[in-house]
Each structure stands twice: as structure tokens, then as C-alpha cells.
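quick one, two chains, predict together pls
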Amino acid sequence: MEEVDQIIIHSLRTLHCEIDDDVKSLKQFSADLIVLAAAKCLKAINNDLDVPNKLPAGMSARYRIGTALAHHIKEVGYSGEIGYQTFLYSNENDIRKIFMFLIEKVPKESTETRDEPLSASVVLQRAIAVKLASQLKSPWIPPYIRRASAIWKGSSPELYHQGVSDAVGFHAYPLQWPVGTTNLSKKIHKELRNYYQSLLPMVIQQTRRPEDVPASLLEAHAADLTAQQEWENELSKAALTSRVSEQEYHHKKQEKIRKRVLDHIRQGIEHSNIQAETQGSQDLKQMLNSIYAVDVPKVKGSRFIHNEKLQFTKEEEKIAQITEATVSGSADTEEEQRVKREGEIQVLQDEINDYLTKIDEIDTEMKKLVGSIQQMQEETEVNKRENLEKEEKYIVKKRTLDLLPDADNNIVKLQSVVDNSAQRLVSLATQWEDHRAPLIKEYRELKEFNTLRESEAEKKLEEMKTFREKMKEIAAETRAKEELHKQLVTKYENMTKDVNRSAYTRRIMEIVSNIKKQNNEIEKVLTDTKALQKEINSLTGKLDRTFTVTDELVFKDAKKDESVRKSYKHLAALHENCEALITTIHDTGVIMREIRVLEDQIENEMKKTACVLQKTKSAEDFDYFMNNGKYFKRIMYHHHH
Amino acid sequence: MADIEQPQRDSTEKKNKITAWKCVAKAKLPVVKSVLHDIIGHLNKNSRPCMRYEDYKESWSLQSYWQVLDVFENLLQEVCKDSFTKDQVFSCLGDVLPDTYKEEIYHVIDSRREDIRKHALAKTTAVSQRKLVNFDWKVNLVMSSDKLGLVQEPLCNLDFEINNNDQKTKTSIELTSEDLKTLIKSLEAANKTVMQYTS
């Protein structure tokens, strides 16, 4: 019981109960201390409970607190008997039971959380939980009091939200601000400067709602930034493929896009066969005009662009003519216009068809001519080659013919020439060999050297690779170990609160050793009793045997002698008496056991009577209350009358 | 029938124009300049309500104020088409206005060429049928569901505001992180094709 009491007292101390150091067991607990400890335990179990820590002086208040505590403990799940008397008139056993129950129920946060590994998701979840808890704890502020839904709050300022009453959608308006004012070398238009100075409203006044200003500014800035980045990207790409300056590239791109747009428009016009409404074609014409008007004056230099311009202007004029032709008739009435237009279209169509057929014919002719030209060229090539070959053959034949008249001499000369050249060849071959041998040697050596170096380099590379892998492994290990270290440090920090763990274990070990000792003793006693049993058995056996032997002997003699017969009778009597004695001893043993059981029962009964006595004590209190009540009633009565 | 009505409508339009120019001529020159600047600043239709009638209520009644706005907007559109020469602007302005007014209006337009051009460009690029006007997003972290205790899946809520023939429609979608990645990938691919077309 001492151990249990010490554990209870220790855990109560960890719950910040002020217990004097000389209090060693629950016997020494006063009613005040019991109430305080119970209240602390209840608060640790359920933080929202409102239980007073102290017993007041007044009897009725004491009673109320006692019943409240009992009620709360029952709510937590205590199944034993409990009431106000348990606290006010304490019984050591009941109190111990209650405290053992309560201390088991006290949540052990630190032990639960410590075992989990600190993964990212757990950390996140814990952060969320902390945030939610702090938000739940914070008081609700009515919207007309708080100025904004987000407030900086706390000793270490933390953004804290409540409600979304003034959350604003991200809505941007186009903004305007002075452009080009920083560049002093460029003159700003006078009217524009005037506008900037006097008329352009501030940026913060340009949106419909003041909340949209930041959104609009951010949007404008982001748009500028992305445009700039994209442009730079394109430029860098262009710089890789072809080296052009930024302006040139800009112009080129403009040209390209314009060309493409023009192509599309022209195709569209041709497809619809200029049957579009006059208004539409006029618009198109105007647009084409405007495209050129913007384009042309800016571009200087670059013959390519000039060429292109000329081309386009020509084509453009054509289109303009066509559209103008259709436009001119617009003054006439609708009917006439249509007839006229149809006639014109017919004529133009015919013309176009004529031109097309002509173009086709010319194309085919061109193709034929080009083919014949190619054929001719090939033929001339072949002829030239043949000519060259024939010329060479002719030269050789001419020489041999020249040599023919002085044939013998010439043959001898030729022989000598042939011999000379053969000798020269041989000498050259030997020379070549002389040169070749050392060179080949050198080459082989160098080759070997090279292969050696290569293999060395490969080895070194492999070594480097292995080293690098090792480095990586070690780095990973260090990282893992650092993390482990962190985890362990946090664990350690959490652990420091529980110093008594070793005390617990020591106590448990002591208890275990005690139990072992007791077990040993029990075994010893058991062996003793077994030995005794054996002895008893052997003795009874012996007794039986001796009795039968003596019985036989005496019985034999009893036939001969009268006195012996008497002694035989005595023997039988003795035997019977002895047996009776043994049975009585057995009976006494049984009775003794029964007596012990009864004594235990009596002790229990005594305890119960003590309880009853206490209840009677509390009954006296009840009487006191009743008297008080009567007294108050009487006073009230008096007041009434 | 429509063809017969055409000239009538033209004539009424002309009349309206003349009355509007008269209204302009009635006001003082600085006021005309400021209103023109204001219109150029708010050519975008969205921000036209940003202009405040209170600023000009001493010069025009509400009706004539709207007329002036219309006539100036038409003028700016036309001036965009032709490329801004002084004579063209003068001819667009009609006969009612005195020359000092015309001169000043031309100066204003000349000084704000870049802005007008930008607006015209924006209008042309927005010529397609459906156009993304605005979008909004937020990320929710789903902690658990009715079957799983621990889900921890981030979900992205995307709201698209789309302009469909001047009618705004809102499309909301919920995306997991993989869906969002595929969406971004397809958008990037689209951007790439656009880049290929323009460069």
C-alpha cells in the first residue's frame, strides 16, 4: 500500500498540488487536501470543468462542493460508491481507490506524442491543430467592433483571422501613369505633358473601388514583367540563331506578322471573289492602307525590306483597284448595281479564266524548254569528255609512231631506262624500310603509352565516381543523422519532465524481487507439508501393519490362554480408541480452519460497521442541517407575519 | 425595307452628330480637353463607369454628356482607321466646331496616339468568341473524408470568368494536383504554338 500511496502522491505533485514533504501516505490527507487533489485531477482530465480548489468554512457550502466533486467523478466513469461523505469524512481505502482511478484517467499527452516520427505531414497537422486551438480559444469579436478580419495579435505578433467580412476579390482595372518622363533626352509632347501635370488622376483614384488599387497595380506590374521576359526570351533565342540587333529583330518580326496577315486577307478576298458588300471591301481597303501607312516610313536601309515593300505596294494597288472598281458603282440603284456588278464580275471572271489558261500553256511550254535545255547540256558534257579521251590517245599513238624508224637503238635506250628505274625503285624501297622501322617502333610505343594512360585515366575516373558516390552516401547519412539528432533532442526535451520514471522502475523491480522471495518461501512451505504428508502416510501404514501382526499373534495365543484373550480385547479397544483420537484431531483441524474463515468474516463485518458508524455520523450532520432548515423556515415565517 | 430606311438613319445620325458637336462647342475649351483625355483613358468599356458625370455637370446636361461621349468615341474609332493626319482629323470633326477647338482636339489625339493604338490592339486581340476575362483560385487541404481518417490531399478551386458575346459566365472547377499539372501543361503547349505562329 505504501508504494501505491507514494505513486499517487508523486503524480499529484506533478499536477501542481501542494503536498507537504512529510506526507507519506493517504492516511495523512486532510479533507482540504483531498478536495484540492480531486479538483486538480478533474481539471487535468477536462479543462472546461469549473471546480473550486478549496473547502469553505460553511457547512452547506462544504456539502455542495462535496456533492459536485462526487458528481463530476461519476461522470468521468467511476463506478464505485461515492458521495459528499467520501470527501468530508474520508476513508483511506475509498480515497485510494478514487485517486487510483483519477490518476489513470489523467491524459498523458507527452507519452503519446513522443512515439510518433516527426514526418512533414504530422508537423503540418500539428501546426493546423495549434492554429485551430488558438482560434477556438480566442474570443469572438462582433464585426462592428473589429476593423479588419485579419489582426496582428499576441506577444510574438501572429496574423489572426476572424470572419471574411472585408475580404475582397482580386479585381484589376487598367491603370495609367506617366510614361517616358524619366528619359530627358526625348521630348514629350506638350499636350501630353500638360495632361500628365494637370488632368491625369492619381493611380489610387483610377479604380472604381479603393480596394482594387493593389490588385490593379499588381496586375499591371505582372503584365509588364511577363511581356518583358517573353520578349527577352525571344531575343535570346533569335540571337542564338542569327546575330541581329534588338531593333532589327523587332522590325523583322513586325514584317513577318504583317505579311502573314496580308496573305490571309488577300486569300480571303480572292476566295469570296469580291462579292463581299461594298462597305466591307472598303473597310478592308482602308485597313490595308493603314497597315502600310504605319509600316513604311519607319523602315530605313535594308534592301530586302525595300524590295518587299515594293512588291507589296504593287499587289496592294491591285487589290485597291479591284475594290475601287466595285465601289464606284455604289451610287446607282440597287437593281442596276446588282446587274452591273454581275456583268463586271462575269467579264472579270472571263478575263481571269483567259489569263489562267494562258498561264497554264506558258507554264507547260516553259517546262518543255527547260527539259530540252537540260538534255542539251548533258549531251555537250558527254561530248567534251569523249573529246578529251580521244586527244590523249592520239598523243600516245603519235609518240610511238615517232619512235618506230630507229627501232633497235630506241629499244636499247628503253631497256636502260627501265633498268635504271627498277634500280631506283629498289633503293627507294630499302630507304623506305630504313625510315619505316623506327617510325613504326615509335608509333607502337606511343600507342602502348597511350593505352596505359587511358586505362589509368579510366581507373581514376572510376575512383572519382566511387568517391563521389561515397560522398553522397556520407552526406545522406549525415543528413539522416542530423534529423535523428533533432528528433532525439526534441524527444529528450519532452522527456525531462518525467524524472520519476527510474523511481517507478526501481520500485517495480523491488516489488518483483519481493514477489520472487515470497514465491520461494511458499514453495519451501509446500515441500515441508508434502514431506509431512509422506511421513504421516508411512506412519499410518506402519501402524496398520503392526496392528495386524500383533492382532494375529494375540489371536493365536488367545485360543490357548484366558488372560491373553483379555489382553486381545484390550488391544481391540485400544485400537478403536486410537482411531477415534485421530479422527477428533482431524476434526479439530477442520474446525480451526473454519474458525479462521469466520474471523476474517468478522473483520470484514467490523469494517462495515465502521462505515455504518460514519454514516451515522453524517446522519448527525443531516440532523444538524434539518435543524438549521427548520430554524430558517421559522425565521422566514416570522418575517412573513 | 432596311435599304430604304438606311438613308433616313444616316441623316438622323448626322443630325445627332451635329447636335453633339454643338454641345461640345458650347463648353469651354479646357473642359473639352479634359473630357477627351478622360475618354481616351477609359476607352476600355469596362472602365467607362469610372468616369464621373459630376466632373462635367456644369458644362452639360446628362443627355448631352452621353452624346458628347458617344461622338468622341466614334471620332477616336475613325481616327484609328485613318492614320492620324491633321487634315483627316479636321474633316472628321465636321463644320460646327471652331478651328481653335479642332486644333486642340487634334493636339490631344496626337499626344495620346500610343494609348489609342493600344486600346485598338486590345480590342482586336479580344475578337474571339469566348475570352477569359478574369480568374481566381484557392487551395484547400482536405484533412479527412467520411471513409478515410487521414486524406491530406490539396485541392485547387479555379474560377474562370469568361466573356461570351458580352455575357459573362463563370466556370468553376476543382482540381487535384495532378489535374492542375496537366492543365498547366496543356496551357503551356498552347502558348508554345502561339509563339511559333508569331515568331
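The beta strands of chain B are 130-142, 153-164, 167-175.
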